[in-house]
Amino acid sequence: MWAEANKRRTGAPSFRHLRRLTDDTGLIEHALGRIPRRKEGYTTDDNARALWAVSEWLAPERAALLSPGDRERLTSLADVYLAFMLWCQGDDGWFHNNIAYDRTPEPETRSHDCQGRAIWGCANAWVRLAAGQRETAFMLFQQSLRTIGRIDSLRGRAFALAACSELLQAEESGRIVLPKGWRGELKDHLYRLEELLDGAYRDASREGWHWFEPVMTYGNGVLPWAMLRAYRTTRRPSSLETGLDSLSSLQAAMTSEGGWYRPIGNEHWHTRDVSSRWDQQPLEMFKLALALEEAAAALESARKDGVFLVISPDVSGLGTRRRQEAGSLAAGSQTTASKPDFGRASDGTEPGAPESALAAGGAATAAGERKPRVVDIGEHIAALRASRDRCLDWFYGDNDLRVPMVDEDDGSCCDGLQMNGPNVNCGAEAALSYLMTEAICYDRRRANRA
User: Fold this and answer.
1) Cα–Cα separations (whole angstroms), residue 240 to 14, 295, 334, 403
2) φ, ψ at 411 (rounded to 5°)
3) β-bridge partners, 309
4) Which range of residues forms the domain containing residue 264?
């Protein structure tokens, strides 16, 4: 069944439903079935997500999968989303989130999550869009730069952290030129936000609970993603450790007894004691795929620095160590990033126990103990990307009810998976979650096309 599905999914996905939800003002938030519910209006949250999605698909590494018509349509959509965000940004740099269909701002309290998401969307568009659009993205980011120090929500800070890392690396690679004085300011924000997220993780983590908060709620994958994204710029071992450890916990929480992924339900969320199964949101699969791909990229960076993975004697965790010379370990440089779940166990082991780690755990002693052993980081990078692709499979039916959540003909996605089946409404967040997961897994589409 899945081999047939994978064979069918070649080329770029359809963007027809995204276009259906977008008018000349912006992206409409909700739909009844697949028809936009205009009375629900618009949000900066969704338009920032949409700007992120079209920027990713228009980036050079993915544009080859697009038809000329899709490139033209996505470029036009980017104009709409940029104009919406330009309209919703105040003179103080903060974005208003909720807009009625008649284009009047709705009463609201300031959303720090929205601010971080908008900042990331603008930074990403500045780096990836072509001339004529990237200048607007730059000016939007410039106006919001002064707000970064005042964002006080965890997810808002995560998006801002990723934005700072993205821009610093983009300048280093020559893709953008930062204005005078920005490099130092972005670095200051980067290190401060990195420490804040790492501190939140260490404050909330307890024995048997390795996470940034006492409860796993929504959009969870953005937290390990941001830490791993920061690591690629700062090279702080603690960020790699926190990112891998928290990602391992998230995978374990989102893995079903049968081995497929199960988004944390939004009825009661997930704690040490209970986990809500319904309603499952597509956003959670997108954010998990995002974190898994970032983990693979972070480990590629770590390997270039001479960091490698170590299996602890009790096979309870992976450590990272920096190589000083062939065959030696640098004293005092070990971190204790616990085991990521790099794939579905085929031997009945509990979710979260990596097959490759168990297989490479070293010879057992007479007492049944295992010796520490260095493992192949390249194998784990490949396994992380295989797990990333399983997130995409969830949309096509590798889920609790074995039902597809998307229609490939128009790129629509059901709003959630409920006990009695998919929620047939296909709003903006769900559609963007699907399209972004396809973008993250674009190399599989490219391989299938070849």
Assistant:
1) 35, 9, 12, 36
2) 75, 20
3) 320, 375
4) 2-449
